[in-house]
Amino acid sequence: MDEGKARQQTGRELLALAWPGGLMLLLDNLYRANDLFWVKEIGRQAQSAISVAGMVNILTFALYGSLGIATLSLSARAHGAGRPERARTLLHFALMLTVAVGALVAVLGFGTMDALCRFLVPSAEGLDAVGLAQEREYLRDYMRPLFAGGAFLCLATVVEQSFLAAKDSRTPLYLQITAVALNFVLNPMLIFGLGPIPAMGTAGAGIATVASRALIGLLGLWLLRRRLRSEIVDPDFSPAGTFWRIVRLGFPVLTAIAVYALAYQIILHRSFAPFGEVGRAALGSGFVIEGLAFCMIWGLGMASGSLTANALGAGSRRQAEAVVRRATVYVLILTLPLTLLFLWAPAPMIRALTEDPAVQREVVVYLRILAWSQWAVGLQAVFEESMIAAGYSAPVSATNMFWNLIRIPLAHWLAITQGHGLPGIWWAVNFSTYGKALTGILLLRLGRWQGTGL
To answer: By the 8 A CB rule, do 226 and 244 touch?
Structure first.
């Protein structure tokens, strides 16, 4: 195959994997959007609680995602090498770890619940103490079912990554559509009550999320086991060796995501307190809208990671380089309309998530500032997903942690010390995102992620 046809083939494979993967991420983000949409009827404190809980969810996802990305990397290489028996064995081993991770989340979550709520919803001079207490209670109610159902949330992530490792993003997409539809039905029923079902408030939103994610996890697992029919025992499989490979691949990702979430939680405690529930609700709504808008970016990143790992598993470093180059071109093209959308037309999306005028004004500012970093988010997605799936997770995660930690003092300095308020926090996010993209370029150009230079 000549070079031109090879590029076209790579482009077709990227897009074929990216659009279902991007749509799958969009559907995944709809869980929080759906929660915010319904709890706005309860009030600003409930919306603020859901917004704050998002950063806790990212922290627990650090555990789920690290196991998922390690499963993807090892399983994709097994598929690329033509070893279905190894992919099946890896899946079974990952399931045992899923149960352990779920138990760990439940123990840590319930053990730190009260302290976590006080930390994330801090008191500040001039704020309503009764309102703060109500917001903390909404937060507790929402988080309890998510901590209790951690094993199901982890299972859904592992199953999703296992499909992607086999170059299949459509099956998890169909599963996600089913789960989101169920979530849309369950949310109003459980939040406000229906017939014999009592009104559960924010707790109902958490239960709806766990129930719908459990569905796709269990159904997806059944489909995977049917597909990986190999009954051959992998003679090279070592439980201890595989465990440490998963730790080696997943721990840097776990640490990076955890630092990202913890950085936001510290910022919420130190820099958001003077702005009360309006600032926290604005962060949550803006974060959800931004997440919905650039899901296709991360779809391209995941597609690039899957194809890169498969190419390296087949021993083709040149093909791995070609995948990353083509994905970079596509993602830069994609970020232009997102930038224009955030700058010129954010209002309709905002009104769907919040009816509070003060929160709406702050979300408009959030999106117009974050518009200027969408190109960097795109580069970050492609570079990180490709290098991590190739097994080069430690350097990528280390640079990510550095820039996430920089956000803490930078946000406080711009927002509080320099007096720029909430826009100062949004610009701190922008500046650190630029740093992530530029260091990603540097790591990619060094070429160590796959043993040769680009």
So the answer is: no
User: Chain-centre distance of CA 230, in angstroms?
Assistant: 32
353 to each of 206, 270, 430, how far by Cα in Å?
A: 17, 26, 23
CA atoms within a 13 Å half-sphere pointing along the CA-CB vector of 104: 13
pLDDT digits (tens, 9 = 90+) for 348-358: 888 888 888 89
Q: Are 162 and 69 in contact (CB under 8 A)?
A: no
Phi, psi of 194 (to 5 degrees): -155, 120
| DSSP tag of 198 | P
| Nearest to 259, CA basis, from 101, 427, 402 | 402
The pTM for the full model equals 0.78
Identify which of 339, 338, 254, 334 has the alpha carbon closest to the alpha carbon of residue 300: 334
* Element holding 420 (H helix, E strand): none
- Say how far apart CA 42 and CA 53 lie, in whole Å: 16
Sequence-distant (≥ 6) Cβ neighbours of residue 331 within 8 angstroms: 297, 300, 301, 378, 379, 381, 382
- Low-confidence winner among 19-23, 56-60, 328-332, 442-446 (lowest mean pLDDT): 19-23
Read off φ and ψ for residue 453, nearest 5 degrees: -85, 150
Written as one string, the DSSP assignment of 280-322 is: HHHHHHHHHHHHHHTHHHHHHHHHHHHHHHHHHHTT-HHHHHH
Amino acid occupying residue 400: N
